[in-house]
């Protein structure tokens, strides 16, 4: 078996290598990355933060019969995860349209 | 109709439904066999992903684990759902845009290397087989308890069903059967949950019931009552775990990242028409999963309350029927330490290990065991965590059709996951090893035949592992996640987000992550299990959570090596540019 000879599949996209397209794609990509940082921060805070690291502190409050930290660990984080994905889907569609890169 | 007749009826009906769907959706091409033609609607794909994902472990074991672990059970809840955020945001849309058939496809192409592809195939097969053996075992348990057939026959029936729709239908057949299986399993999970939540709290919605007061007149909240009752019996508080914070943190992280790196889950997102559909579909999948995952902690808590109340201080002679049923199936045992005929349920093990029945019965009619009695604890009851979900309807005295539904649901959960795993194993062999590596000249027809043969072989191996489970299977199923987190996830992630990652870096990273994680787990679980205590663990991280360290090692090695070697060729850089924008995803066939 020799290495380095896997044929490249035809790129599916349309990377016509004009500079304008490149600048456009770069701007699109960095906006995506900024959005990802924000959303992943929320993801981290509701699960690792509220459900684990600060659970002891949050447990002094309660939500109905749930200690708050316990609620985040077994219920709340999951609800936020669902919202995060749908928000990302919605926001990305707008960003893609803005740069005319949607599918 | 008797409960037994209802069980046969429900299971029979669900099986004919799966077979009917398989006949209706036969795969005619490799594209249909591998990725269902790429034209699955995002909501259907969400359901299929949910069924694919929720295995026998989620359906049968998870609520039971939470019932006995309390807060510590949160690692599974957060870990197995948070992974979908990682998947939807960081991997799925890009992999869909890439538009090929398998996970090793992506790694092999992105890292322009057959070696990388083969390493990825090895990781994939390793992860998938550890996972699948547990599914066939779940099928066996459900069959033996509910259908009164020996475990071996149960596994063989399960294999035959999976063979039928996975081998004939490929991904297309599996997708639509999984949609049906999701409906069966979620219905089967929710119905008893509504009943039990209503019985205990007066509120039928389990997610709200868990935060409500118990309707026994005490005015206590469910969780308060559990804490009080359990502490009285010498257990720790339910809302307070016994694992260290760093361990909880690392296990959760390993499960999250591992979920995002599981090949049979990733490949589901290759089946939707567009990159943006992959995101949408992950969102739907998580909604469908969250329904079960937010219910499980409620079922766990209610089951624990019910169990304590019906078992503790009850005379064995008056024990409810379900108690004796599960005792007959070896999953419950009672040893009358103080010779009073009553069952004392307390903290601590009743005896060492799992029950070793002598075949004789004691004074009260209980099955005697030969295990060494643990005199340090007053506890007299042994209970296998896995029975809680299956026994719950009986414990709560629900009607026979609910019990029958749960049996059909457990089978749906195990079979759907098994089928998904079999497919990724077979496609990695026929597509990645044969077509892309060793037999590039194979025809499409030949490749399709190879895929079917590989799927058949994988079913036989999985069935064998289910019938004769090697001791290590149960021990390592949970570790599939650690291995996925430490091997495949970093390679895929950097392939998308780190342009200068090259093949040398990726290969070195995957191998070092896999070897480190595997050795750590093997050392504590297989080689010297007696040293498996917190004091000996690296930074206090248990083998369950060590995948995170493996992942960090993978990243570090990959980045270090890539800095010292040549950067990837221009065409690869162009490919990365192309997968980063959604426009122009490959065509899809509508069905």
From TrEMBL, chain A:
Domain Sodium symporter small subunit positions: 26-101
InterPro entries: Na_symporter_ssu
Keyword Membrane in record: yes
TM ranges: 35-58, 70-90
Domain of life, source organism: Bacteria
Keyword terms of this UniProt record: Membrane, Transmembrane, Transmembrane helix
Region of interest: Disordered: 1-22
Name listed for the protein in its UniProt record: Sodium symporter small subunit domain-containing protein
From TrEMBL, chain B:
InterPro entries listed in its UniProt record: Na/Glc_symporter_sf, Na/solute_symporter, Na/solute_symporter_VC_2705, Sodium:Solute_Symporter
Membrane topology note: Multi-pass membrane protein
Keywords of this entry: Membrane, Transmembrane, Transmembrane helix, Transport
CDD domains in alphabetical order: SLC5sbd_u4 (cd11480)
Upper taxonomic lineage: Bacteria, Pseudomonadati, Pseudomonadota, Alphaproteobacteria, Iodidimonadales
Primary location class: membrane
Transmembrane stretches, start-end: 6-25, 53-71, 77-95, 116-134, 146-167, 179-200, 245-270, 282-303, 401-425, 446-467, 473-498, 505-526, 546-566
Protein name: Cation acetate symporter
Compartment list: Membrane
Pfam families, alphabetized: SSF
Family in the record: Belongs to the sodium:solute symporter (SSF) (TC 2.A.21) family.
